[in-house]
Amino acid sequence: MEALVDLLVEMGYEKGYAEQAVKETDCGGIEAALDWIAEHPNEPGPSHPTEELSTAAVRSYVCEECGKKLRNDDEMQFHSAKSGHCSFSESSEEVKALTEEERKAKMEALRVALNEKKKQRLEKEKQNEIEDEKRRREQGKKLLNAKQEFKEKMERLEAEEKMRQKAADKAYRAQLLAEIEKDKAERRARQNGYASAATTVAPAAPAKPNSASTTIQSDECHLQIRTPCGAPLKSTFKPTDKLADVLQYVCNNWPDKPNGVTRSVVDSEGVTLQTTFPTRKFTEEDQSSTLHELGLCPSAVIMANRLVNY
């Protein structure tokens, strides 16, 4: 409402009369207000004060800063609020009201000004939308670049980890083969020692045919159990002990990662046993067999591994 009143005041109508015109037309717009004014040229209202001016000589006011002539206090206050000018002087010259042609011309000028402001506002909004879209695309591009860099970094770390794991596995296999060869050499040395002792004790009598050969058996079974981490487990069993006893021993002394020094108890269902030379993976049926029956006496190296889900 105030915007319409200001437009009417700027076109030359008194503020009270302009307020009444806008109120009577229910804020229907500048054209409706002008139509009401044209139909009610002598309508009584706030724009027609009953009291006469205290000073008849004062017919108008002049803005000393821009020279604009103003008919009354309302126009002077409106001009001051709009322009920021504060210096006014009284004048005895009466400011004539605008003719119909002047009002139409001024209204057209106001319409042009409003359209220009609207155009500038739309252009500014469009420019803001373009800038927002640019920022959105730049942010999306930065996000994609960050994701790509993170992916490449993770792939690089994964490749490095695979290389380290491969090198560690290679070193572990080399160490394992060396220890297996050492155990085989020790076994051969012990077997050669037993054979030498048997030859020394035997009487120097003519050999007699004998269909059954004597087999020297040890009372102990020395096992070395290797796990994925830590030092090997070493223990001595009896030849009559079963493979299940060895499995239980391994599960009760499983080395913890990463150093393998501390021990923990693990589920026996998640642990597998096998030999490398010769390669043999023991099954559940082998658990009831003795170490002698499985050919692990007098010594052997066993590999122990855990299943992934355990």
Automatic annotation (TrEMBL):
- Tell me where on the tree of life, at the top rank, the source sits: Eukaryota
**What organism is recorded for this protein?**
Hymenolepis diminuta
Q: Which InterPro entries match?
A: UBA, UBA-like_sf, Ubiquitin-like_domsf, UBX_dom, Znf_C2H2_type
Ranges for domain UBX come to 216-304
Domain UBA residues, every copy = 1-40
Q: Which GO terms describe its biological process?
A: negative regulation of proteasomal ubiquitin-dependent protein catabolic process; negative regulation of protein K48-linked deubiquitination; negative regulation of protein ubiquitination
What are the entry keywords? Coiled coil, Cytoplasm
GO CC list: cytoplasm; nucleus
**Which SUPFAM superfamilies does the annotation name?**
UBA-like, Ubiquitin-like
Coiled coil as a keyword? yes
Q: Matching PANTHER family, A to Z?
A: UBX DOMAIN-CONTAINING PROTEIN 1
Name used for this protein in its record:
UBX domain-containing protein
Compartment(s) of residence:
Cytoplasm
Q: Where is this region: Disordered?
A: 119-141, 187-217
Main site of residence?
A: cytoplasm
